[in-house]
Amino acid sequence: MSRDLSSPREVLDGDDVARALTRMAHEVVERNKGASDLVVLGIPKRGVPLARRLAERITAVEGVEVPVGAIDPTMYRDDLRLRPARALEPTDIPAGGVDDKTVVLVDDVLFSGRTIRAALTALDDIGRPRTVRLVVLVDRGHRQLPIRADHVGKNIPTAMHETVRVLLSDIDGQDAVLLGSTGAETEAEAAP
Amino acid sequence: MIRHLLSTADLSRDDATLVLDTAEEMAGLTEGRSVKKLPALRGRTVVNLFFEDSTRTRTSFELAAKRLSADVVNFSAKGSSLSKGESLKDTALTLEAMGADGVVVRHSASGAPYRLATSGWINANVLNAGDGTHEHPTQALLDAFTLRRHLGELAGRHVVIVGDVLHGRVARSNVLLLATLGARVTLVAPPTLLPMGVEQWPCTVSYDLDAVLPDADAVMMLRVQRERMHDAYFPSAREYSRRYGLDARRFARLADDAVVLHPGPMNRGMEITADVADSDRSVIVEQVTNGVYVRMAVLYLMLAGAANDGARDERRSERDEVGGAANDGARDERRSERDQADPSAQEETT
Asked: I need a surface site. Which of B92, B100, B156, B194 has the fewest CB within 10 A?
């Protein structure tokens, strides 16, 4: 994995990531006409810290606590049977549930759309939100399903062989988005 | 992850931790949910093959498999061909013909699950649900899960296991698993109820319950299996419970945060008194709940992914080389039918 990213190019630095999140927080509030009934759910791994940051920014703008949680779509994936069983990541639904709420799904990279499809199915078993919106830090294109994001931090046109890697200080020690170029199968492609 | 769960000795520390972590997620995904159903094993068939009576283990496995959306078939000894003298091999071939993906087996003979897993009769993953006086791995996993929830990491913790180690498969599985997880285990039992070779187990042995209790983080009381013993292992039930039973007096010797476990079913008044069994530091009912989570975790890790199919293909080809061509012809056909069936099942979900 690290070998594949031997010469990655930084397309967003820490300040860019922060600005994109602030803008998207404002967009979410504007679209929702306030912060009432919002539930922000991150998709592991890196969607979870992004969701927390987004919620903090919404709180800073609107002055209300926004429930934050995590939703792991692993068991709902369409490729579950194509690979060895994967370890599950935590799912953490805020106490108020999602019924009749506006759920904001947050992920780091939007690629094929299959993860989001799985997350939507997972959400079905938890409750019935009034609306579901999607926030992603990076949209790299190459959708395989009719899914789009409501709020995008940065659109990065990519080729299939390229890799997009999001680094977050909570997990990786720094904030950045890296664009790598290799022919080999990479993490981003392995988990679209 | 391992292909068959036959013994806790087969689990590395990483494997065991993965099972316990996955069980934790299973708990989070089903506790307090109105829809207690996950799709991970949709289209898979799990067979409960119970040659010995067991209500709680079979029900627990059944519930776990159903919560993961598997199809569950129960075979029990009573009222089936198993009681009509069918051999293990013929039963296995029947299950194979029905397309079982996982077989949960309980048998009175130690080693029956191992035979089933290694004989080449079936391609399914085998899960040992208790074999003779050998092992009961999922019980040990659920005990470890329960202990971890109360004590945190088990490394360095001291677990005392009291009772019939000779006939109890729970003790062996627990000793092996707890040792793998880094816990210290002390077995307490009358010398007559300890198996040969116990000195080579990764644990210490004591005959004095009062002496080891103050230093214990958890006490696991084993059932005195009346149906297995013919009254020759100790002088009387009364003497046993006086020397090895957990009563209020002994309970008071335990540290304040120590917990009491029992795999069930309990003989109240024999190995454990009612007031101890019902105390708030007894986690016996919780063990039952946790059993479902742990079995969900094991079934998910063994059956949900592709390693399962890959391993099957390998075994299939191994068998093709080993097996005689004549009697394998029919099976080959069946096999190819299944090969065709499998991809279609995948397409359905993609």
From this structure: B156
- Degrees (nearest 5) of the Cα angle B65, B66, B70? 70
Please tell me chain A's helix, strand, coil percentages from 3-state DSSP, rounded to the nearest 5.
30, 25, 45
ipTM of the complex: 0.84
As a whole number of angstroms, the distance between CA A20 and CA A135 comes to 11
Marked catalytic residue, from B3, B42, B56, B316? B56
Task: List CB contacts (< 8 A) between B346 and chain A.
Answer: 81-82
The residue ranges of chain A whose pLDDT is under 50 are 1-5, 185-192
Class of domain B137-290: alpha beta
- Give bridge partners of residue A151 from the DSSP assignment: A135
Asked if B346's CB is within 8 angstroms of A82's CB, the reply is yes
* Residue A192 in domain: no
Angle between helices B137-151 and B56-67 (to 10 degrees): 80
CATH of the domain at A120: 3.40.50.2020
The reply to whether domains B8-136+291-345 and B137-290 share a CATH topology is yes
Report B:26-55 residues touching A (Cβ under 8 A): 26, 28-29, 33-35, 37-40
Give counts: helices (H), strands (E), chain B.
13, 9
Question: 3-state DSSP: chain B helix, strand, coil percent, rounded to 5?
Answer: 50, 15, 35
pLDDT-derived band at B150, boundaries 50, 70, 90: very high
Chain B (304-333) residues lying within 8 Å, Cβ to Cβ, of chain A = 304-309
How is residue B159 annotated by DSSP? E
Does residue B314 carry a pLDDT above 70?
A: no
Q: Tell me the three state secondary structure of residue B124.
A: coil
Q: How far is CA B73 from the centre of its chain?
A: 18
* Cα Rg, chain A, nearest whole Å: 16
Compute the C-alpha angle B204/B20/B46, nearest 5°: 110
Pick from B292, B310, B307: which is nearest to B30 by CA? B292
pLDDT of B144 reads: 98
Judge: B25–A80 Cβ closer than 8 Å, yes or no: no
Q: Which residue has the tokens 């187990």?
A: B201
pTM, two decimals, is 0.86
User: From the centroid of its chain, how far is CA A6?
Assistant: 25
Give per-residue burial for B169-204: e unless 16+ CB within 10 Å, then b: bbbbbbbbbbbbbebbbbbbbbeebbeeebeebebe
Enumerate the domain spans of chain B.
Answer: 8-136+291-345, 137-290
State which amino acid sits at residue B249.
Answer: R
Q: Quick one: B8-136+291-345 is in which CATH superfamily?
A: Aspartate/ornithine carbamoyltransferase (3.40.50.1370)
Q: Enumerate helices (H) and strands (E) in chain A, giving the number of each.
A: 5, 8
B168 near B144, Cβ under 8 Å?
A: no
Q: Are A182 and A158 in contact (CB under 8 A)?
A: no
Six-digit token pair at B128? 């040992």
Residue B63 is which amino acid? L
The tokens describing B235, both together, are 């002088």
